[in-house]
Design brief:
alpha+beta, 4-stranded antiparallel sheet, 3-stranded antiparallel sheet, 18% strand
Length: 193
């Protein structure tokens, strides 16, 4: 920025309460959608599709085997059924609990007293995890809805603001200004309307 350019005014909001469990769950769901949409490359998509295809093939094979064993060896058919169902339940449960614990830990760090600022250089935020900053031209996408403000940063980083946790502050104006400045940074120079 040259000395002749106008400096954008700084805006700051301060979190007034910790983020509740329902908000953490919503952030987790939103974040998974954002990151999976961003980082799912062709190889991952191919492997995931094949994973699902082989899982379906395995289920069909087990059903066929249980049908064939039902008359010949009923105890073995029951054993195969119980083993298959137990494996499926505990595989899904383990992944669900692991994901929930990891993301709960992350979003639990959003505490009262966290500060978020928008200035001429970009975004700055101070949380229990330390001081962070990001230039607006590095922000990959922004979601600004009724409940939250999320900015996706490089390397799957992010800024998370649950609007209800900022009582008595104009979080809507902060979010709108962030989106406006971010879009202005993304506009190619010379293409201003």
């Amino acid at each position: 920025m040259t000395t002749g350019e106008r400096q954008e005014p700084a805006l700051e909001i301060v979190q007034t309460r910790d983020v509740c469990a329902a908000d953490r769950r919503d952030l987790t769901y939103l974040w998974e959608k954002l990151v999976s949409r961003k980082s799912a490359g062709r190889l991952y998509t191919i492997f995931f599709t094949l994973y699902l295809a082989f899982a379906a093939f395995l289920v069909m094979s087990i059903v066929t085997a249980v049908g064939a064993l039902r008359d010949v060896a009923p105890v073995l058919a029951v054993q195969l059924t119980v083993a298959s169902l137990g494996f499926a339940v505990f595989l899904v449960g383990t992944q669900w609990i692991g994901k929930r614990l990891a993301w709960d830990r992350y979003f639990t760090w959003l505490k009262a007293g966290d500060r978020y600022a928008l200035d001429g250089d970009g975004l700055r935020w101070s949380t229990a995890r330390g001081l962070h900053s990001c230039r607006l031209d590095k922000v990959e996408t922004i979601i600004n809805d009724q409940r939250c403000l999320v900015a996706l940063m490089p390397h799957n980083g992010g800024l998370f603001v649950v609007k209800a946790a900022f009582e008595g502050q104009d979080v809507e104006a902060f979010g709108a200004e962030l989106v406006r400045r971010w879009q202005a940074q993304r506009t190619p120079s010379g293409a201003a309307a």
